[in-house]
What does this fold into?
Amino acid sequence: MIIQMAQPALDLVIAALEKIRETNDRAPRASITALARLQGADSVTASLCEARASPTGRRLQLAPNKAELLEPIRERVRVCTKCAHLACSRTQTVFGVGNPDADLMFIGEAPGVDEDQQGEPFVGRAGQLLTKIIKAMNFAREDVYIANILKCRPDTPPGSFGNRAPTATEMQTCRPYLVEQIEIIQPKVLVALGAVAVEGLLGMRGTMRELRGRWHAYNGIPLMITYHPAYLLRNQAPSEKRKVWEDMLLVLERLERPINERQRNYFL
It folds into this structure.
């Protein structure tokens, strides 16, 4: 009686085992779509390294490396001969220095003799004063970006000393390089140092008394105009130094940087 009751159950077990064996022996099948997905796995992974998917399903490009974007421009500047007289007289070009991701960018007029020798803007006496101003703002020099309208030192007659201001033609010729720098760096605030830098950047003339102490704009970027540090070396009046510092306080406010009591009462 027990054997007769167990036989049907045994038959079911045997049938199930046979079905499992047949399934295991059968070659796996994959759809064309699935195979394509498998074959494209490497390319998908590579794409994910270059872009991310947003919540909406759109692909968001990763931020470009600004330092790398600046290098081709630096190389074009290095070999530039658009101003033949400057290309012949320069020791080297002076492209710019600092943080390509800077929120704050300073713009001067042209390299001097020290900058021409070292290949870096604002390294002479005026540059040392600019560095002092930057540090008083609680920035390191490496935090900001510094460049000039001209990338070559304006030539001077043989045997003469000092520097000369760039001509309107020289600034117009060299200006596109600075425009590209600004477009890549995209600072939150620009500071133009001196009336010559203002003319080179904006194409406008005026006295510093008219221009400084209020906000202007360059392509939508807030622009503060202040005295060139070289002016403060020539004019040591505390009132003139205070004007520059008041301009820098406005810059700090626009950048939403904290300003302590010592900074508010600071004199250069």
Notes: The domain at 66-264 is CATH 3.40.470.10 (Uracil-DNA Glycosylase, subunit E). The chain has 13 helices and eight strands. Residues 27-57 have pLDDT under 50 and may be disordered. The CA atoms of residues 103 and 187 lie 4 Å apart.
